[in-house]
Amino acid sequence: MTSPSRKHAGPGxxxxxxxxxxxxxxxxxxxxxxxGRIGSLSxxxxxxxxxPFGSVMPYGLDERGRPIFLISTMAMHTxxxxxxxxxxxxxTEDDGGGDPLGVSRxxxxxxxxxxxxxxxxxxRKLYLASYADSKYWVDFEDFSFYRxxxxxxxxxxxxxxxxxxxxxxxxxxxxxxxADSMTEIIQHMNTDHKDALVLLAREFARIESQEATMITVDxxxxxxxxxxxxxxxxxxVAFLREVSNPAEARMVLVEMVQQARSGAK
Length: 265
Description:
CATH class of the largest domain: Mainly Beta
CATH architecture of the largest domain: Roll
Number of helices: 7
CATH superfamily of the largest domain: Electron Transport, Fmn-binding Protein, Chain A
Low-confidence stretches: 1-16
CATH topology of the largest domain: Pnp Oxidase, Chain A
Mean pLDDT: 89
Order of helices and strands: HEEEEHEEHEEHHHEEEH
Shape: elongated
Structural class: alpha+beta
Number of domains: 2
Oligomer: single chain
Radius of gyration: 21 Å
Distance between the termini: 39 Å
Number of strands: 11
Largest sheet: 8 strands, antiparallel
């Protein structure tokens, strides 16, 4: 099991996948909540004490990654929270029609409480930025803003990759700088540069494959799913250097492909 508090290190031997740098669980959890914006909220049932009650829940995020909910007093989850503020929010990565158990997900545990009046204006602004249509009901008297004060986090990055994340680490982390462009980068590489991905896997992960598909990308590198003679397997490929935006990621990928092609000659 991967340690939840593991920090990334410098690139190690290309054949040793365990030393390939990647974001911490806290950073990945923060990125996932940034991208998700709709989760499953579980509250403690007032009607059936002790039982969890699940609800589909859109949310905004404040600067510390704390979820902000706009909920009606008529909703069952609101009534539950008024009786017991303890709740959890499950956010999952889009599986793209694949295996839902193979994608990342994160569960935030915390206390969901009404926002104090002096914080409502900022929460309103943040929420409307994600859900413009909520302008039609955001000011109704029976709607209020609640915020989950996170006390613990459990992150699952796929099969065999999981661990608890201290709330303090999550609080200090930021979404990955490639988060908002990740889908575009992945689609571009898988559509236009499939041969290049095979070269990158051979040169930097030391794995021969007939086909390679990029499945995630971040500021430190990317994960690929490889079709080999022995079957399907995954690999982590580190960038030559950390990137801070999509343009830098493109430059590094171009350099790496050139290096891989030179090594293949």
